[in-house]
Amino acid sequence: MRALTYEGPYRVAVRNKPEPRIEHPQDGIVRVTSAAICGSDLHLLHGLVPDTRIGFTFGHEFTGIVEEVGPNAQGIKPGDRVMLPFQIFCGGCYYCTRGLSACCENTNPATDAGTGIYGYSHTMGGYDGGQAEYVRVPFIGVDAEKIPEDVDDLDALPITDAFSTGYQGAEMCDLRGGETVLVLGAGPVGLFAMWSAWAMGAGRVIAVDLENYRLQFARDWLGVETINFKEHDLVTIVKGMTEGRGADATIEAVGCEASGSPVHRALGVYAKLEAGSPQAINFAIHATRKGGVISLIGAYGPPFNGVDIGTFMNKAQTMRTGQASVKRYMPHLLEHVRAGRIKPSTVFTHRCSLEDAPRAYHTFAQKKDGCVKVALFPNGNLH
Amino acid sequence: MNREPEVTTPETILRRSGYQSMEPVRRPSYWGVDLDPARRPGVPGHREPRPMANTRFPPEPQRGMPAAPMHGRTNKTMPPVFGTAVPLRGLSGAIRKYAYSMPDHDPSHWLLKLLGDRVDSWEYHAKKYLPLGLAVAGLGFILSSRASESRGLGRRKPRSLPVTRWGGEARRREWSRREWAPSH
Ligand SMILES: NC(=O)c1ccc[n+]([C@@H]2O[C@H](COP(=O)([O-])OP(=O)(O)OC[C@H]3O[C@@H](n4cnc5c(N)ncnc54)[C@H](O)[C@@H]3O)[C@@H](O)[C@H]2O)c1
Ligand SMILES: [Zn+2]
Ligand SMILES: [Zn+2]
C-alpha cells in the first residue's frame, strides 16, 4: 500500500509499504478515507519527538471504512464507517473506566507519560499512523465511533483530535459565564478552543497569533477579538483590556515550537537542549490574572524546559493539562455538528491526495498559502 | 477561580482601553449552549468507574515483538497491546535499546533517545548516498592517481594551510591552554 513515511528531520515521502495485519484478537483494519495533518505532526516532522524512526508512518486524525475485524472485536463489522480517537485505549483499565482514555495504561510499553497514539513515534507505542491507505486499529470495538449517516467525513474528522482537544481545553477553564478567555495560537486546535469557549459562556474570547491570516480566519469564522503579538506587547495589551489584571483563563494551543523568544527557539527547537520552546507557556503565565486558570493543550515532550514557574507560583494560578480523552467527547460534539452549531470542515483550507502530502506538509509547516489545516484522501477523493 | 464573575457585555468591552479588534464583538448564536457544566462530558472529573462499551477485560496478550521496548522501570509489566511499526536496527537501534534500559523518569532515557534519532537519520542518509559517494570517490581516486603519475611519482608538496578570512594562514593549535583560562 501507499503510505507517508518519515525520512529524517524536515523530510517525508510517500512510499510502498506492506499492508497492516491483525496482530491481536481485538484488532481491526481500517481503509482510510480521510486523514488530516495536525500541528502535532509538525513536531514529528521537525525531529522534536524522541524515537521517531525513519520509515515510520504519521497520522493520528483519520476516518475510514472497517475492512476486517479480529475474532474478539465486539460491536463492529466490516463496512462500518468510523472515526478513531487519536489515542489507542483498552476500555477497561483504571483510567479507561474513569473516562480518561488519554491515560490508558495498556497500550504503550515505551513510557508511562503517554498512552499509545497512532503515528506518533515509538515513544507513543510505535503504531503506524493513518496517513496511508490502511491502518491497524487495536481495540477497534471499543475505540471506533460510528459516523452518523448525515455527517460528512470531513465534519467528523476534526472530532478525532483538534475539535475534542479544543473542547477539553475550554472545559478545563471551568467557565461559569462571562469570563475573559485568552487563546494562544489560532491554529486548528486554538480555533476549536475558541468555539468551545463561546459555547461554555465566555464573556470575551481573545485570539493570539503571529500570522495575520490566521487571526483574520478566527475573526471571520468565530467573531473573536485578535492580537498579533509581533505587532504589540502581548501582556501589556491583554492587561490593558482587562483592567490591569489579565485574562481569567488562558488556553495555550501552541506547543513546543512557539515563536516569540529567539533564545528559546535556539535552545529548544534548533539545538534541542531543552524540550522545545516554552514561550507560549510563559506568555500564558504573564497574561493570566492572579488566581486564574491556564489550560495547557499545546504539546511538549520530556525531559525539561525553561518555564517561568516562579511567576506561576506567586500568581496563585492553576494549570490544567492533558491530551484530550477524545472518546468521551465524540457523541457530544457530533450532536453540535448535527444541530448545525458548527461546521468543523471549515478548517480544511487545503484538501489533496496522499501523493501530494509531502508538499502539503511544507505548506502547513511554513504557514504558506493561507493554510489552516490539510485533509488528505488516501483512497481517492471522497465526493 | 471567582465563582461569580462579573458578566462582561460587548459594550463594556468596547469601552476598555486596549481594545484591538477592528470589528465590534458579536456573540455567536450558539453562545452558552454548554454553559451548564452538566452538559460537559468531562465534568465532573471523577465519576463511578465503569468499563466502556464493547470492552473485553483483561485484554488477551499480543504475540510478537514490540517495536518500542519496555522502558526500564523494574516494577513495570509489559502491556498486553503494543505497536510493531519499525523494529530496532543498526547503531541507532543499539543506542535506543540502551536508552530504553533506563526508566523514563531518568533524563538520560530521553537524551539518549534523541541521540538515537540523529544517528538513525545519519545512517539512513549515509546508506542512501553511499553508492553515489563511492562512485565519486572512485572517480576522484582514478583522476588523482593519473594526475600524480603525470607529475612524477609520489612527490607531493606539503599540504598548505587554509587561508582564513582574516587574511593570513590559519594557525594550527598555536594557542596554549593558558590563554583560554580565565585570568584572575
Ligand atoms: N493536548 C492534545 O491532546 C493535543 C491534540 C492535538 C494537538 N495538540 C497540540 O496543540 C498545538 C496546536 O496544534 P495545531 O494543530 O493548532 O497547530 P498549528 O501549528 O497549526 O498552530 C499553532 C499556532 O500557534 C501560533 N504561534 C506560534 N507561536 C506562538 C506564540 N508564542 N503565541 C501564540 N501563538 C503562537 C502559530 O503561528 C500557529 O498558528 C500543537 O502543539 C499540537 O501538538 C495537542
Ligand atoms: Zn494531533
Ligand atoms: Zn485502558
UniProtKB/TrEMBL annotation, chain A:
Instruction: Identify the SUPFAM superfamilies for this entry.
Output: GroES-like (SSF50129), NAD(P)-binding Rossmann-fold domains (SSF51735)
Going by the UniProt record, its keywords in alphabetical order are:
Metal-binding, Oxidoreductase, Zinc
One Gene Ontology term of the molecular function aspect: oxidoreductase activity, acting on the CH-OH group of donors, NAD or NADP as acceptor
Where in this chain does the record put each Enoyl reductase (ER) domain? 8-376
Q: Give the superkingdom in one word.
A: Bacteria
Cofactor(s) of this protein: Zn(2+)
SMART domains attached here?
Answer: PKS_ER
InterPro entries reported in the protein's UniProt record: ADH-like_C, ADH-like_N, ADH_Zn_CS, ER, GroES-like_sf, NAD(P)-bd_dom_sf
Family in the record = Belongs to the zinc-containing alcohol dehydrogenase family.
Q: What is the protein named?
A: Glutathione-dependent formaldehyde dehydrogenase
